[in-house]
Amino acid sequence: MQLGLVGLGKMGFNMRERLRRGGHQVIGYDPRPEVSDVESLAALAAALPAPRVVWVMVPSGPITDDTIRELADVLGPGDLVIDGGNSRFTEAGLHAKLLADKGIAFMDAGVSGGVWGLEEGYGLMVGGADEDVARAMPIFETLRPPGEPADGFVHAGPVGAGHYAKMVHNGIEYGLMTAYAEGYELLAAEPLITDVQAVIQAWTNGTVVRSWLQQLLAKALKEDPGLAGISGYTDDSGEGRWTVEEAINHRVPTPVIAASLFARFASRQEDSPTMKAVAALRNQFGGHAVKRTPLSG
Q: What is the pTM of this model?
């Protein structure tokens, strides 16, 4: 197929390469001229024969909104836009309507695989009409991991379903990462454990807790024992928050995912106001000693 790809960052750049290796003609656009094939979205549209397929792989929020609005102006009836970024699922319907007013079809695609996707393939969760999924299937076939299609690709439902599935996927990822990290800290705190990395490495085969994330933790500890070169400050992309919000909306208990999200918030505090208040209360009701800061005298 011929495909336009907007956004050549960490994932988009590798996706372009994987698709080209698979025999597709990919024309990429990125604001950075050193990686871009064309100088503008208008030039991208002009370089593709109609009906066009354009995959958007840019950060969620205003950048995605602006990109899709501009594509609505340079594409035409019969074209198809796929949003493969981490947009909130509620945005999918708005983007679909904006494009539909111009006769342009829309799909949302959740993409998992990170920087490893170039070689390993990408897990894909897509939302859209059956005919649009069928039209883009050669792209999905090239991007997905080898093996049974159902083990790396799903048509999750109508527009919005792909990003909803990816949102829940990322919420689960939050919980898994936090559990592995807590286990690492507990191992590191016990003097009986003489080689923390070796323990986690041993879990990578034959154990019920083995996973790709667990293997990556073993790899990270081998490269940097004790993780001395890394700050504990951890951002969140938004999808963990959205997962918790959806859990509240549906009255579904997700205590592990919620706790992992709050753990990320805690990682950004140099000194926790919550724990200061706890210390003050213990001092007030029980006379327990508090640790004074240098400024308190």
A: 0.91
- Nearest one of 20, 32, 84 to 55, comparing CA atoms: 84
Whats the size of the chain, residue-wise? Answer: 297
Can you state the percent helix, strand and coil of the chain, rounding each to 5? 55, 10, 35
Buried b (16+ CB within 10 A) or exposed e, 259-294: ebbebbeeeeeeeeeeeeeeeeeeeeeeeeeeeeee
Report residue 80: phi and psi, to 5°. -135, 130
CA pair distance 198, 221, nearest whole angstrom: 9
Tokens for 267?
Answer: 């990682």
Catalytically active residues are: 166, 173
Residue type, 110: G
- pLDDT band at residue 241, thresholds of 50, 70 and 90? very high
- For residue 242, give both structure tokens: 């959205």
172-188 pLDDT, tens per residue? 999 999 999 999 999 99
* Nearest partner of 170 among 213, 226, 202, judged by Cα: 213
**DSSP H/E element including 133:** helix 130-143
Kindly list the structural domains of the chain, giving each domain's residue range(s) and its CATH number in brackets, ordered by start: 2-157 (3.40.50.720), 167-267 (1.10.1040.10)
**Residue 199 is encoded by which pair of tokens?**
């323990």
Cα gap 40→44, rounded to integer Å: 6
